[in-house]
Write a structure and sequence with these properties.
seven-stranded mixed beta sheet; about 210 residues; alpha/beta; Rossmann fold
Length: about 210
């Protein structure tokens, strides 16, 4: 995983539109994917009346949709101060704070009904993934939801082409997941392909 400086610069780029790629990703996230992720989560685990926490919340857009879908309280935690500033400036009905996903000891156990992450877990190795999941499980009362890139031919091709073109971060260095991957992580919940994201992502629901 890149250091905090990288992610601070990434969110400054999103805010100030320094790069075409970040502008494109920001547009897709804002007008399609954030809504699609929220709809998939709500369809499979209704959020009405629930308290929800996103780890690695970034722009916070998915949280804002979950709030509109009836979530009682929405909290976003991100490693990057710039990401938190970005989210706070654009979304007023959710809470955002800076935090380290490996150590959220300042937050009491079982503080939220649902804890989730989007495009986050794939940036870490197996031991780190297990630590992250343990911390998310500690915070959740009911369910942990994980969204990650799916090990499909077209997703593999996208990552390959990005690496060949010299990209070393988003959509190039991700680990690709399958139901088998979640079993290797010791998870026993339900894994579902996310058709509303063009079959490039997969979601896992770990009921506690």
């Amino acid at each position: 995983m890149e250091d905090k400086k990288y992610w601070d610069n990434y969110w400054v780029d999103n805010k100030e539109k320094h790069t075409f790629f970040n502008t494109l990703v920001d547009f897709a996230r804002k007008y399609y994917f954030a809504r699609a992720f929220a709809a998939f989560l709500d369809k499979n685990y209704p959020v009405a009346g629930k308290s929800v926490c996103e780890i690695g919340s970034g722009s916070g857009l998915t949280l804002s949709y979950l709030k509109k879908m009836g979530a009682r309280e929405c909290t976003g935690i991100d490693y990057s101060e710039e990401a938190v500033k970005y989210a706070q400036a654009n979304i007023k009905d959710c809470k955002f704070s800076v935090g380290d996903a490996f150590n959220l000891s300042s937050i009491p156990e079982k503080s939220f009904d649902i804890v989730y992450s989007l495009g986050f877990l794939e940036h870490y190795n197996r031991d780190e993934q297990k630590k992250l999941l343990a911390e998310q499980s500690r915070l959740a009362r009911e369910c942990v939801f994980i969204e990650v890139p799916y090990n499909s031919p077209h997703m593999s091709l996208l990552c390959y082409l990005n690496r060949k073109s010299g990209r070393t971060t988003t959509f190039s260095d991700e680990e690709l997941f399958s139901p088998k991957t979640f079993r290797e992580l010791g998870l026993t919940g339900k894994t579902k392909l996310m058709p509303n994201t063009f079959f490039i992502t997969i979601g896992h629901f770990e009921h506690l």
